[in-house]
Every structure is written in C-alpha cells, then in structure tokens.
Design goal:
alpha+beta
Length: about 375
C-alpha cells in the first residue's frame, strides 16, 4: 500500500452551518461499477486542519492491498462528522459498503452523515442551465480547469496496465485524476449556496411595485423583491418562468413578478347559501338576495358563487395568502391582492417568496 499526504493550496469558502474541521471530502477509484467482482484501488480525501487544507491518498498496488486501504480510510473517517462526495450516495458509499461486507470488515460510516453535492444540486439543473450534472460540467460552470484528461472509466485500463508494469507514468495519471476529483469537491462545495437559497435562506430587505415596458413598449407593473443572502453565490444566475424572473449574484437576489392589473373573482365555498344574479354577474347571500325579484336570481353553483374585485394582484401557486382570487372557478392558479399592508408584512412576503422558489424548482413551464 502506498500513502501520500500533503498540504494543498485550496480556496477558503463559507461552510454555512458546518465547521470545516468536521468535513471530510472523499472520492474513490475502482476497477468496475459494481462492488461484486470489482475492487477499490485508490481513495483520496481532503480535510481541514490548523488553518490549512490537506490531501491524503491511499493507493493499492494490487488486489491484495485493497483491505489495507479500506481499513486505513475507515479509521480516518472516524474523526469526522460529515462525508462530502459527488454522487457518493449513489456510488462511492454504496461501493465501499459492498466491499466491506465482501471482505467481512466492520460496517463503515456508522457515525458519519453524508452530504452528496450531486444529489443536493440535482433539482437545480434547469435553473443552473447546465447540459448535465457531471462533476467536470459543474467545474466548468464554476470556471475551473483540470490537468487530468482521463475519465474514471478510462483509468480502469490504465490501472490494469500498471499492475503489470508498475509504470510510474501510469501511477501519476491515476493519482492526478483522483487528486483533482477530491480537491475539486472543495471548489464545488459553494454550489450548496444555491441549494440553501431555494430552501428559503434569505432576508427580504425591500418590496416595491414598479412600472416597466415590455418589448411592445407597453407599460405594465411588476413587484420587485430585494433579498440579502447569508452566503455568496459563486456564479451569477438568472432564470425566468411564467411571469417570474430572478437574478442572483454575490450575496444579493432580485425577484421580479408581473402584477395582474384588472378584475378577478372571489369564490365563496358555501354556495348553497347564495343566489347568483345573472344580470349583475355576481352572487349575494340569501339573507340579502331574498328581496331580489325571483326572475333575476337563480340558485348559485360552486362555479357561479363569486363576487368581483378590481385591483392589483400577485399570482400564487399554493393557496398561501387569503383571501385569494381566481379568473375562473376551475383555475388552479390563484392571486392575492397587493395591498400596502400585505406588501409591508415581511413575514407574509417571506413565506410567499419561499412558495415562489418551490414553484421555480419544478422543471415545468
């Protein structure tokens, strides 16, 4: 077994609610994609100690040394609370547990919590506007460049050749790929800022109704929200959906939502207690409508039991704020009135924005 350990020059980052000394970043290299019939030949890990980032790699020169590198890594993990990986929940941790079981070793990671960056950013793929979520793709999104030119699959044949020749050149290729994979996780960790943003971690600082011109030079109104973030977004993002457009940069976020200006309907749930007046196109409670001529009233239905309201409204994709209004009875999209009281209520507006972020995460137009 070969072990190499050294300090490395990696950027500092906001570790959010985590202490850097609790985090262990890791990546494995294997001879296949299934724990049965394949084995681990290289494990790399990054950790923070005494104000510096450090990298350690355990390398198995042959199959017989696999238990040695597994044992060394499992023991090393015991000092950390969180294991950081890229698709570790889908591959690395599963593979390591299978190999530990096959070798009759103690189950690993019992006291560690997994933070899988891939799984955590997966719902954001359409918002980040990336082709796929491969680690190298996300590194490119962040403007990172690699020396390594091989894929994990290509390295399998390189390792097979190394076992025959013990070529230092092949060994360097193997170590370099793993080094850039595991140290790349340090660069990728700030991607979690997008995750925490869409989970509702922000401070609403201002709300205003403003005029804007569309492409046809017609004036409309929009509601502008200014947010401060308790972390920094590594790359500026912008995304639009329906009548919503958002931009995020550094530790700031702006959300613009088109205001509906006009008339909407408020539907009463207890329609059996109402009459519908076709001429006036409205409903009245029976205690009042009783005095209306019978020729001008009919029993209200759920779809006709409404009153009409004219004003400024914002869309909502859950029935969060009441009273809510609709264009038609069967519509799932509802609106609430933009009163000064509601717009100045930071708690209500914060809840509304969290609902908007949940809606933006749905990859549907």
């Amino acid at each position: 077994m070969f072990t190499t350990q050294y300090q490395t020059d990696l950027p500092d980052f906001d570790s959010y609610q985590y202490s850097k000394t609790q985090l262990l970043f890791f990546d494995i290299e294997t001879t296949g994609f299934l724990g049965r019939g394949s084995f681990v030949y290289l494990i790399g890990a990054c950790y923070y100690r005494a104000g510096k980032w450090n990298t350690i790699q355990w390398f198995a020169s042959n199959t017989q040394e696999e238990p040695m590198i597994l044992s060394a890594f499992f023991e090393f993990c015991q000092s950390y609370s969180y294991l950081i990986s890229y698709n570790g929940d889908g591959f690395d941790m599963v593979f390591l547990k299978e190999r530990a079981n096959a070798l009759k070793m103690e189950p690993p990671f019992c006291d560690c919590e997994s933070l899988d960056i891939y799984r955590m950013i997966q719902p954001l793929k359409h918002i980040l506007k990336v082709e796929n979520l491969k680690q190298k793709t996300i590194e490119n999104f962040l403007g990172l460049q690699r020396e390594d030119r091989f894929s994990g699959k290509e390295l399998i044949s390189i390792y097979e050749n190394y076992q025959k020749t013990h070529s230092d050149k092949d060994k360097c290729y193997l170590l370099l790929h793993n080094k850039e994979d595991v140290e790349g996780l340090i660069h990728l960790f700030p991607m979690l800022s997008y995750v925490y943003l869409f989970q509702g971690n922000f401070q609403l600082t201002n709300v205003q109704i403003k005029d804007y011109e569309n492409i046809n030079k017609k004036v409309h109104k929009e509601c502008m929200f200014w947010l401060n973030l308790p972390f920094r977004l590594p790359v500026r993002i912008s995304y639009g959906k329906s009548d919503i457009y958002m931009t995020g940069y550094d530790n700031h976020m702006k959300v613009r939502i088109k205001v509906y200006l006009g008339e909407l309907k408020y539907f009463y749930s207890n329609y059996k207690d109402y009459y519908y007046l076709p001429v006036e196109d409205t409903s009245l409670h029976k205690s009042v409508a009783y005095y209306v001529d019978k020729d001008f009233r009919v029993q209200a239905k759920a779809s006709t039991c409404y009153s009409r309201k004219d004003g400024f409204f914002l869309p909502q994709y859950k029935q969060t704020i009441s009273p809510y209004f609709k264009k038609e009875y069967k519509d799932t999209l509802t609106y609430f009135e933009c009163t000064t009281e509601i717009l100045n209520n930071s708690m209500i507006m914060g809840i509304y924005l969290k609902e908007i972020f949940e809606y933006m995460l749905q990859n549907k137009k």
